Amino acid sequence: MKKKIAIPILIVAALITTGILVSSYFVYAAIANSEPSQNYIYSKTQGSYEDLLIDVGVCDVIVGYNSTPMEEKLIVQLGYENMIGIPQFSYQTQNQSTILIPEKTEILKVQLRTDIKYNLNIFINNGSILLNVPENVSLGTVQLSTVSGNIFTSFPGNNEINNLRLFSTTGNIKADLTNAILGGDVSIGVINGLISVSSLNSTYQYDCNFDIYGITGNIFFSINQHEAMNSNVDGIIGIVTGNIFIEYSDTSNNVSAEFLNYAVSGITNEYRSSNHPAEHNYEFLCAIITGNIFISGNE
After folding, report:
1. Is pLDDT above 50 for 59?
2. How would you write 60-126 as a 3-class SS string?
3. Cis peptide before 36 (omega within 30 of 0)
4. Is the terminal CB of the chain with fewer CB neighbours within 10 Å at N or C?
């Protein structure tokens, strides 16, 4: 593993806390840098990607994709009201556009195009985020953050993702990856809430750092790997107070896993595949201060 296993529990606790504090600073800095009255969507073309920033205060955000061809780079609705094309709400130049969102908007719906790769950044002060991505759609970096609210993401098949970063101060996070193609790192964290992450036959273009952090709550992590990984994955799964539940399964001789743990108090167990190390490996350090770690493996 990239992270040394033989380290004291205090260092592990510091790693968990640092991960949360860094993520917290990132969220609050992003919100503080925007004017309180400036709820907006900003879009800018950057090479082969479309940078999309959604920055709102109190609002739920639902992001989906078109099922029929569309000319616009995105379509926005306030609840049921389509606001694209209303001059007082938007302005644009050749390569960028800004859409201002009224402060009392409760639900913001954004429809994207399946033929465009988006770097997707969403920041919410109070509200939840729902991201539904169709099969075979590629993205750049996906960065979703809310201070108070839930985050639900679904990548149902053959979705290329550069980096995936999900964070909520108070709320739950659910991320489902099916045959995902990851080209960067994964970081998922909450201060107070539940995290549920599932990965089915994900592949990794490069060695991947996959971290899941929490302060208070539970973490559920499921890996089913029955096809080649292409690269190695390692990371920390850590929580200060709560429980960690991990289910691992593989049927390939070229894949293996190792889950080691550190705990101050509680019930813990470890798991190591019989063929570890294999050609490519999952290697995780599970760390907890108060609570239990349950790991089940099947090969």
Report:
1. yes
2. EEEEEECCCCCCCCEEEEECCEECCCCHHHEEECCCEEEEECCCCCCEEEEEECCCCEEEEEEEEEE
3. no
4. N
Q: Which residues pair with 200 in a beta bridge?
A: 178, 224
Span 115-169, pLDDT tens digits: 999 999 999 989 999 999 999 999 999 999 998 999 999 999 999 999 999 999 8
> How many residues are recorded in the chain?
299
Structure token digits, residue 14: 């510091």
Amino acid sitting at position 8: P
| DSSP β-bridge partners for residue 292 | 243
Within 13 Å, how many C-alpha atoms sit on residue 162's CB side? 11
Rounded CA-CA distance 78/105 in Å is: 6
Strand partners, 188: 166, 212
DSSP β-ladder status, 186-192 and 163-170: parallel
**CB-CB contact of 150 with 172 (8 Å):** yes
